[in-house]
Amino acid sequence: MQLIFLDTETTGNDVLKDHLVQVCYFTEGGGTKVEYFKPPLPISVKAMSITHITEKMVEDKEPFEHSQMRKDLEFLLAGGVLVAHNAKFDVAMLEAEGVKVPKFICTLRVARFLDTKNLIPEYNLQFLRYYMGLEVAGNPHDAEGDVNVLRAVFDRLFTKIKEIEKTDEATINKMIEISSKPSIFSIFPFGKYKDKKIEEVVKTDRGYLEWLLNQKNIDGATDEDWIYTLKHYLGN
């Protein structure tokens, strides 16, 4: 199976209304492809402050929906495997543009799966870059730079999974399986119970977990991993 390492930059973080402004992907044999796109709505100031992609930079670009890259990705993803960090977001953004993603590997979920002792305090891509001591070229929050980091993180995770699964094919299939299921957290990384085990908190303050679950649902049920985790410990 061909792996398509991909990162997107967008007008914002709402998968229901935001659009792509930059896409980068890498494939063995095809190398790195990166393009800017003019979205059908303004880029939020918050997004610009993170990505440094401005309206002026994309004003003369074509929309993603009419691009050759969209056609190329449709073809590649139909028979390949998308690799992305927090892949659910990238998958949602691509599918909102009409590009189907049948199979994907989420390096964030695989990293959580391997961290059985909860030693890693954060799982964002750039944190893992430095936590793992990876020497990678590229600027954070630039799609091309993030794809370089993504590939390096993937290689480290792949090596760890392969120690268990033995073959490349079995390793890829295991990573796809892990990525298809929500993660279960074991420790609170925030709030009044920061660094406490969730299984202990639910025994002493079940109401806090019920309140947090309600808040996550109010937020639009977009935080799939936390909703799954809270329901797991609450026995829902």
Explain how this protein is built:
It is a single chain. With 236 residues, this protein is of the alpha/beta class. It folds into two domains: 3-179, Nucleotidyltransferase, domain 5 (2-Layer Sandwich), CATH 3.30.420.10; 182-236, no CATH class. It has eleven helices and five strands. It has helices at residues 45-51, 55-58, 68-79, 87-96, 107-114, 125-131, 143-165, 168-179, 198-204, 206-218, 224-234, and strands at 3-10, 20-27, 31-36, 81-84, 104-106. Strands 3-2-1-4-5 form a five-stranded mixed beta sheet, sandwiched between helices. Helix 6 packs across helix 7 (143-165). The longest helix is centred in the middle third of the chain and has 23 residues, at 143-165. The protein is globular.
The gist of it:
The protein has 236 residues and is α/β, with parallel strands linked by helices. The chain is built from eleven helices and five strands; from the N terminus they run E-E-E-H-H-H-E-H-E-H-H-H-H-H-H-H. It folds into two domains: 177 residues, Ribonuclease H-like superfamily/Ribonuclease H (Nucleotidyltransferase, domain 5, 2-Layer Sandwich); 55 residues, no CATH class.
